[in-house]
Amino acid sequence: MTIELQRPVGAPIVIDDLERLSFRVDRRAYTDDDLAAREMTRIFDRCWLYVGHESEVPGPGSYVARDVGGRPVFMARGSDGVIRVFANSCTHRGALICSQPAGQARSFRCPYHDWTFSNQGDLVGVPIPDGYGPGFRKADFGLAQHRSDSYRGFVFVTFDPEQPRTLTEYLAGATEYLDLIDDQSEVGMEVIQGAQLHGARANWKLMMENSVDIYHFRALHKRYVSYMESLGSVPPRRRGGFGCALGLGHGANELPPAAARPLAYWTPMFGAEVRPRIEATAARFVDRFGAERAERITGTNRAVLIFPNLMIIDAIAITIRKIDPIGAGQMAITSVALAPGTRIRTSGNSARVTT
Ligand code: FES
């Protein structure tokens, strides 16, 4: 039997009924191609979007190339130490300049006609320069640089030159959660080399929503839960947990860990031999931040959604997920691991050590 759901033309996509504590979303939100196209122009072309982490471009000349919000970009640390985000498109005839996902370069040469750009974006080399008219000036053809900024090592870009908010204003309450993550290292956090690239035939919003949906955890991840129990995980040392809105579409949840956190929360699953080291680290956190904040940093799991394309799962490991919609019914997901760093982070031209 076929059941056709009749919906009145123009019916709302979202019904948020605070009086009845009811929040309902029409499934067109996940399948409608016109809506997906409008999301790209009204959300991804306007918001601040996550690009990557400063530690992915640790030294002058290092770069990473990737798609963000449907556009090819590359993030490069110039020889001057400054991180910039460029359109990955030659200013001559638009060929892709950076074809490697990551590397080290003093300059970038376009493969089509060999125009060459410095790692600060300046056009520095043009074959047969006499072939251009007298008005041609290399200074007019530097790489297109997008507006970018970083907060606690997380680099964001906006494709809207008139985006009215600074990055910090845009992040709103999410800054508190990025602080809780970055404070886990005395020298800054680092992305561990290597990434998992996934594709899914599903709408991008499903991944974002799922990442803060803790309701599903024990039902869907039974095998993981029993595996952790077999390793000696213990019940949470405290109960509780909450979810919260952080403003401008961002949100988070916090839960006591059911397993352990390798940074500074020891449980038997790690083995007795590492207990002194982990507990010494925990004591240093109490010295630095006080008992209450140290417990929140090191003894609490959290998931943070930074609208529209960044999820951070901070539990027994820290996973950064960058989401890229591909129409209504597909998405690309890039996952990397974040961990306490081993080198002093440089931001712009200055070195910073968190003490
Ligand atoms: S398109 Fe890049 S040099 Fe021509």
TrEMBL record:
It comes from Phytohabitans rumicis. Residues 48-157 form the Rieske domain. It comes from the Bacteria. InterPro entries: ARHD_Rieske_2Fe_2S (IPR015881), Rieske_2Fe-2S (IPR017941), Rieske_2Fe-2S_sf (IPR036922), Ring_hydroxy_dOase_asu_C_dom (IPR015879), Rng_hydr_dOase-A (IPR001663). This is Rieske domain-containing protein. One of its GO terms (molecular function) is dioxygenase activity. Keywords: 2Fe-2S, Dioxygenase, Iron, Iron-sulfur, Metal-binding, NAD, Oxidoreductase. Gene3D superfamilies: Naphthalene 1,2-dioxygenase Alpha Subunit, Chain A, domain 1 (3.90.380.10), Rieske [2Fe-2S] iron-sulphur domain (2.102.10.10). Belongs to the bacterial ring-hydroxylating dioxygenase alpha subunit family.
